[in-house]
């Protein structure tokens, strides 16, 4: 951390997390050029201080270097205590990533500790930084995990589809109720007779639930798909669920 006693402008702080010699440095320089007080954060405080001095000299701006380890929640909290002592954060850019010492040639070669470290920096670190700069309103605790699953499915599909392995990510957006009973055809006919689309959805207690038997048919469809037209992602939802 440097020059923390200096007063920041009332405009707000541009906090750039993950500042290296390329993109992070350019983003910090741009916001400094546009008149923002800039806080740059990274693990290497020595290099970061040199970047801060360089930008401050070139742009005649206030630039503060603050050490952060995005894989450590305590480090993130302490870093943003320093940032928030300068003023409110108007802009937060999260550019941190975990560099690999060597790049695996296949999915099987990926080490679990490297995978965990990458998640800790790229995803969990962003979570901690955002949490330090937002209000108390809660969010969907499962959302980040599900989005990580989506990304993993895409990575697996990219590597293994050429080998004849069909990897599909199925989004089920709605409440799943008990099976209706009867055949799928009967279920769909019932849905059509009540004005619902053929989605295997049944009303219950004023709230629509999704028929697990109908969902199972979709999974079977993915299994028997022609490999010339494989689905990578499918979104299944109840008519009662609003898009986004």
Description:
By secondary structure, the protein is α/β, with parallel strands linked by helices. It folds into 2 domains: 121 residues, 3-Layer(aba) Sandwich (Rossmann fold), CATH 3.40.50.720; 93 residues, NAD(P)-binding Rossmann-like Domain (Rossmann fold, 3-Layer(aba) Sandwich), CATH 3.40.50.720. The chain is 41% helix and 16% strand. It is built from 7 helices and 8 strands. A 4-stranded parallel β-sheet has the order 3-2-1-4, sandwiched between helices. A two-stranded parallel sheet has the order 5-8. It has a two-stranded antiparallel sheet with strand order 6-7. The longest helix is centred in the middle third of the chain and has 20 residues. The radius of gyration is 25 Å and the shape is elongated. The N terminus is likely disordered.
Evaluate the radius of gyration: 25 Å
Q: Please state the oligomeric state of the protein chains shown.
A: single chain
CATH topology of the largest domain: Rossmann fold
The counted number of beta strands is: 8
Q: Strands of the largest sheet, in order across it?
A: 3-2-1-4
Low-confidence stretches: 1-9, 182-206
Average of per-residue pLDDT values: 80
Secondary-structure element string:
EHEHEHEHHEHEEHE
The major β-sheet equals: 4 strands, parallel
Please state the overall shape, judged from the principal axes of the Cα atoms: elongated
Distance between the termini: 40 Å
